[in-house]
Structures are given as structure tokens and as C-alpha cells.
Amino acid sequence: MNRSGGDGTTPLLQVTDLRIEFGRSRREVVHGISFSLEPGERLGLIGESGSGKTVTALAVMGLLAENASVTGSIRLAGRELVGLGDKDLAPLRGALMSMVFQEPMTALDPTMPVGRQVAEVLLLHQHLPRGAARGRVVDVLGEVGLEDPERVADAYPHALSGGQRQRVVVAMALINRPDLVICDEPTTALDVTVQARVLKLLDAELDAVGASCLFISHDLAVVSQLCERVLVMLDGAIVEQGSVAQVFTAPTHPYTRGLVATARLDAVAPGERLPTVEDYYARQDRT
Amino acid sequence: MSLYEVDHVSRRYGRDGTAGSVLAVDDVSLAVEAGQRLGIVGESGSGKSTLVRMMAALDQPTSGVIRLRDDVVSHRRERDLGALRSSVQLVFQDPRSSLDPRMLVGTIVTEPLRSRLLKSSGDVPTDHRTRLAEVLESVDLPLEIADRFPHELSGGQRQRVAIARALAPRPQVLIADEPVSALDVSVRAQVLNLVRDLVSAHGLTLVMVSHDLTVVRHVCDTVIVMRRGRIEERGPSEQLYEDPQSAYTKELLASIPRFRL
Amino acid sequence: MRRAGLWTGVFLVALVILAALVSLVWTPYNPLQVQPSQTLRPAGWPHLLGTDGFGIDILSRLLVGARTTVYVGVVAVSLAALGGVPLGILAGMLGGWVSQVVLRVTDILYAFPALLLAILLAAAVGASTTTAMVAIGIASIPAFARVARAATLIVMTQDYILAARASGTSRWTTSVRHVLPNIAAVLGVQASVSFGIAILAEAALSYLGLATPHPHPPWGRMLHDAQTYIFSAPVQALWPGLAIALSVLGLNLLGDGLRDHLDPRLREAA
């Protein structure tokens, strides 16, 4: 394992007073959030669309559009990422930190066999002879539970099912054994049965690689399957954080209480009115 | 006599025997009674969306017949579908796609009322302004929203607009194709409550497609589980939820993410 | 950077339109007045851009020529859009054999250069600005048809088309109410590019003398006239050439800029 700076006392990822603004109007969408992630820890980031969770993840990866301005501090393994140019960030992406996106169809290049795409990520960061890369790619595709990995490696994305594609994306994210994996709604686009399998896979693979994970989702139940700790984001601010058990059984912020209530569909008797977030937390403007 | 009858219906995409030919719906028969709330559950590729699109005459079966009140609606010319179009309305999965981005909400909601086909074949409300105010109110949206564009609204509001449009011509049947799966979990409950309230308030017959059995259980009284174009299991929703018979239904239920603390 | 291109395009196109408008009410000299004593004057005072072989003020000719240029462009592009857009939408909405027929017909039209069409038309009904406009317009139909068809195909995958059908909206109404507004942006881009092509084609046709008889000779005709003096007064060809080049550049920049501006992926990133 190529762990760097994980001596147990310093967090792997330390985000301090992160602010993100967009465009000429400098509209602030993330308002000075702070959190940290220990080596090997899995942190859930919960919030609805527009709460700023994806933007936060992209800021960590340094993948925000040029018109975004990021202030504050993002330290990965002791190294400051805010202010780094693309040239300095590129060697870190895919090697030290990687990302699993929501939509596996658009995360893969439709014009290239998936094996070559996985190999590219590998060869960007490790110097291997072509043949050795191929062997490693097939191994990893097998590890993520793809049957007949040789055949899958030569297949184009459109020839694979949604679940298979997401497994390829997971393989790409993990092949360089990164310290941090950011998952942005990795199962939202998948069927329930496939979602269950991909979650199980992520769980096992993160353990095997020993990677930390920042797991973004709007679905509390999904987060509770994978994470130990959770942050709740609302309108660009963190309104609550704590262990999964604590936040989900004894939420303190009314918005979190609403989220927990709406997520437990199975706890409501059929025919009864379902609880909504607004029952707990009244918002202006949005319904 | 059932309201809807789907009689040995199959739908094949592509020519039989050629590469890429898919049997999306494979010999499905079912009946929907007036006032029933039917849920159709399955994963992508199970044929559930294709089935309801054929019921709405937006797609044609390769074989088999679909009847609405003893009237054959499959393989009919568009201009002969007035009765179906005025009594059956749809809500689609993703309101970002189902609402024309260049139209104002008010125009979107009243579009069915301006259809010549509907006007000629039913008592479609003629006073558009009044009806617009009525349906917006029934989906808990303020009237001011009529002068906005879809992209100015939140996901939940957009889906309410789609529901308001479906209600505008006073349909008897509402077909909802994954109405909450593109929405945040936090908004899901609102829309489901709304659908259930509207169905009972207007005495609608509901056909709701979903991949999530817990969602269907809350709104529907009967459930059909589909897999690879065939009906895998059917029954009262509570019975199916508590005591599933087929292995596939059991797997579906087990896959639903639950709290793990 | 992208925006700079768009605004440069807007500026250049606005300049051409302004020149055409100004020429309606004012020109420094009468653009038709031949002055044998003033031939081939260099740029300076009182003739800012000099005079041509007939002693006509070049600036005045350029201003008036802009009018013809804009006129030809507008008519040719309108003709192309009126012919191509309905064809494209029809093909995109109906698909099947209709689509195939439209594609084959546009293929055949593509194989027919505007120039050849103009020569044929000129031979049949005589050379005139109208002949040139019609020829250019017809030759630009396939481009519009193809762009409209491709854009329509994308719109047809949207659920609001299905929703309209489920609401009993007829095909015709759907095409006008939903398809056309949603492909208008792409058509605007195509129009500005076609406008540039039309100006070039018209210049080429006037140069060849296939579009001449018009009281206000366009820039291509000026280029043709300047050819006589290419060795004695080469600057003569510079002004109309520059006018043509800048206006075509402007239209292309405008088209590219619009496309970038309207591309939803680029816009979301912004």
C-alpha cells in the first residue's frame, strides 16, 4: 500500500472553511464548511440536489469549472490542494484520490473498449509494459465481480449492462489503490438489485484497498449501509454531523429529523400519510 | 367488465430472429378494474414501461389486443383515440424531460385542454384559466407559478406541474411511470402523498410503474411483478410485500436499502 | 475567449447592417455618378477610400453594396430555411421512408454546386440578382434540412413529445409548438453560417457576371471591376475584398459563438 501521511493522528483529508463561488456574480454555493476524514474512514455526505455536496466533492478533486473560485483549505495527506494548478493535481487524481460518478454510461468513453480505459488510468501513474498492464486490468475486472473479465475488457461500454459498467468504473477508481475514493451517488442510476450488489462490492473493495471514502448520496439508507460517520448538508452548509447511529437515531437538526423520517418508508403502515421533510423543517420558497 | 383489458400482449423491438431483436413484453395478460390502484414493479428491461405505454396507445403491441371499456385501443389511428386520450393521462419519470423547457408552466398545464381531439370527444373543461387555477391548487402549487419556466422550479415542483397537466382534462385513469424515481428521497414522500390523495379525491384508477416495492405498497392495492417481459408474480400489495412467493420478488425486496445502524 | 469571438462576430455583422441602413439615407457621394475627371484617385480627402475607374467614390459604392449583400443574404437564407426546415422536421418526426427520401434528395442537392445551379438558372431565365439569390437559396436547403432533422431527432427522444401525444395534441401542432421552438437555437447558428456562405457565393456569382443587373452593384461586382486595374491600381480590389472577408468572418464568428453559447453542456459549465 502506498499510504502517505496516515500515521493515525493527522487526518487523511482536512477541509477547513471551504467556500465556493460561481461566475461573475460570485454566487456562493458552499458557505465555509469544515470536516475531516481519517485514513480508512468512510464518511457519508447527505443532502438534496442543490445542497452543494457534489460541488464540494469536485472541489476536493480539483475538477470544478474555471469560473468557480475556491477559498479555504483542502489538505490531502498534509498537502494543500487549494490553489494547485491542473499540472500539480493531475498526478494525484487517479493515484492518491479517485472518483466514482453517478452515471456510468457518461463516465466511460463510448469509443474505446473498457479494458483500455482502465489500463490508461493504470499507465498514467505506473510504468508498466503494455502486456503486464493488460494482465493487471483483467485481474481487477475479475476482482470487481465481472464474469469473463477477458471478454469484458474488449467490450465497448454500450455492450455492457448498467451494473457491469458501474463495476468497470469502480475498477478504474481502485486500480491504483488510492488513499481516498469519492463516490458521487454511485448507485442512483442503477436498479435496486444491481444497487445492492454494487454497494456490497464497494464495501469489500474499499476494505481490500484500505481506502478512505467520501460517499455522497441523497439516500440515507444507502449511506447507512457503507459509512461510519455522516455529514448532513443543507443549502451549502453542514447542519449536522456525527456517527451514522447517532445522526439517524437521534438527529438534532430539524432538517435531519425530516430526512430520517422520509427515508423510512417501510416503517409507515400502508395507506397512512407519509411523513415529509416539511413536517419537521419549514423552508421558504422551495416546496 | 373490466375497465382495462390487456389480452396476451407481446411487444418485440427489431425484427424477430435478427441480431438485437428484443422481446420487451412477452405474452402478458391483465385486467384493471375501475377504481383499482395497480402497481407494476420490475427492473429496467423488465418491460413495465413498454407495457403501460401500449396501454396509453403510445406504442403498439406486436401481437395481442388492449381494450379500454370494451373498445379496442391497440392499432387504432390517432384520430380514433379521442376517448382514450381524454380519459387516460400520463405522468412520466423525469419532469425535466417531460416538460417542454421553452414553455411557461401555465401553457404546459393547459395543453391537453387545447387539443382538438380531446375537445371533440369528451367534456373537457373549456374555461382554461379556471381549470388551471383549480389543478394548480389541487397539487399545492401557487397560481403565480403559471408564469414561470420549468427550469426555474425545483424537482418536486416540476413533478407537481406534470401531475397538474395530467389532471387538467379530468381523466378517469392516471398512468404514472416511475413518478418519484428521479426525485430526491426527501421529496419522494410529498409526491407520493399527493398522488394518493388525488387518486382518492377524484376517484381515479391508477396504474403506477416503479422499481421500488415499498413505494408501490404505499399507493397501490394490487401489484404485478415483471421480469424479462413476463409477469413473475401478482397479488394484493400487502400480501406480496409480507409474503412474496417467487424467488425474484424475494430478491427485489431484499435489495431495497434499509437502515443499518 | 469564446465570448470574445461571439462579440467580434456581433460587431462585424452589426457594422455591415449599419452600412446598409446608412446607405439608404446618406452616402458621401452619389454611388452612380460617373466623374471622368476623378478616376482612380488614391485614398485620402475628399474620397476617403479613393475612386474607381469611373471616378465613382468607393466608400459610397461599398455602403450601397452592403445593402445588396444583406438583401441577397437574407433572401437566400430565408429561402433555404423555408425549404429545408420543414423537410428536416418532417424527416425527423416521421422517420422511416420519409426520412430516407429526404436524406437522398438532400444528397442529390448537395452534389449540385450553387455555382452550377446559378449558371443553369441564368441560362434559363437570364442573369440577375434574383437568379443568384434563388440559386444560393436552393443550394443551401440541404444544410438546413440536415441540421433540422438531426436536432428534431434529439427533441423527439424527450418525454414532452410523448406527453403532448398523450394529451391528444396532433403531429402538426406538436411540430409547431414543441419541435420548432426547441430547435430554433440550432437553426439560428445554421442561418448565420449559411449567411456567410451566401455572401461568398453571391460575390463569386457577381464576379463571374451571373448576378449583375442591379442598380447598386454588390461587392463581388466591385471586385470584378477592380480586376481591370489589378496592376495599375491594386488597392481597388482591396476594399471590396476586405468588406467580403470581414463580413463572412463576422458571420462565422457569430455562428460559432452562438453554438458555444447555446450548447447546454458548455453553458452548464459556465
Task: Write a structural description.
- The complex is a heterotrimer of chains A (287), B (261) and C (270).
- Chain A is an alpha/beta fold.
- Chain A has helices spanning 53-61, 86-89, 104-107, 114-125, 130-143, 149-153, 162-174, 192-209, 220-226, 244-249, 254-263, and strands spanning 13-22, 27-37, 42-46, 68-76, 79-80, 97-100, 180-184, 212-217, 229-234, 237-243.
- Chain A has a single domain (13-250), classed as P-loop containing nucleotide triphosphate hydrolases (Rossmann fold), CATH 3.40.50.
- In chain A, 36% of the residues lie in helices and 23% in strands.
- In chain A, strand 4 and strand 5 (79-80) form a beta hairpin.
- Chain B is α/β, with parallel strands linked by helices.
- Chain B has a single domain (4-255), classed as 3-Layer(aba) Sandwich (Rossmann fold), CATH 3.40.50.
- Chain B has helices spanning 48-55, 82-87, 95-98, 105-110, 116-120, 128-138, 155-167, 185-201, 213-219, 237-242, 247-255; strands at 4-13, 22-32, 37-41, 63-68, 71-72, 88-91, 173-177, 205-210, 222-227, 230-236.
- A six-stranded mixed β-sheet of chain B has the order 6-7-8-3-9-10, with helices on both faces. Chain B has a four-stranded antiparallel β-sheet with strand order 2-1-4-5, covered by helices on one side.
- In chain B, helix 6 (128-138) crosses helix 7 (155-167) and helix 7 (155-167) runs parallel beside helix 8 (185-201).
- The model of chain B has no long low-confidence stretch (mean pLDDT 92).
- With 270 residues, chain C is mostly helical.
- Chain C has a single domain, classed as Orthogonal Bundle (MetI-like fold), CATH 1.10.3720.
- In chain C, helix 1 crosses helix 2 and helix 7 runs parallel beside helix 8.
- Chain C starts with a helix and ends with a helix.
- Mean pLDDT of chain C is 84; it is low at 264-270.
- The chains are: A alpha/beta (287), B alpha/beta (261), C mainly alpha (270).
- At the B-C interface, helix 2, strand 6 and helix 5 of B face helix 6 and helix 7 of C.
Furnish the topology, listing elements before pairings:
The complex is a heterotrimer of chains A (287), B (261) and C (270).
Chain A: E1 13-22, E2 27-37, E3 42-46, H1 53-61, E4 68-76, E5 79-80, H2 86-89, E6 97-100, H3 104-107, H4 114-125, H5 130-143, H6 149-153, H7 162-174, E7 180-184, H8 192-209, E8 212-217, H9 220-226, E9 229-234, E10 237-243, H10 244-249, H11 254-263
Parallel strand pairs in A: 3-8, 3-9, 6-7, 7-8
Antiparallel strand pairs in A: 1-2, 1-4, 4-5, 9-10
Helix pairs in contact in A: 4-5, 4-7, 7-8
Chain B: E1 4-13, E2 22-32, E3 37-41, H1 48-55, E4 63-68, E5 71-72, H2 82-87, E6 88-91, H3 95-98, H4 105-110, H5 116-120, H6 128-138, H7 155-167, E7 173-177, H8 185-201, E8 205-210, H9 213-219, E9 222-227, E10 230-236, H10 237-242, H11 247-255
Parallel strand pairs in B: 3-8, 3-9, 6-7, 7-8
Antiparallel strand pairs in B: 1-2, 1-4, 4-5, 9-10
Helix pairs in contact in B: 6-7, 7-8
Chain C: H1 2-25, H2 58-94, H3 96-110, H4 114-125, H5 129-156, H6 159-166, H7 171-207, H8 219-226, H9 235-262, H10 264-269
Helix pairs in contact in C: 1-2, 1-9, 2-3, 2-5, 2-7, 3-5, 4-5, 5-7, 6-7, 7-8, 7-9, 8-9
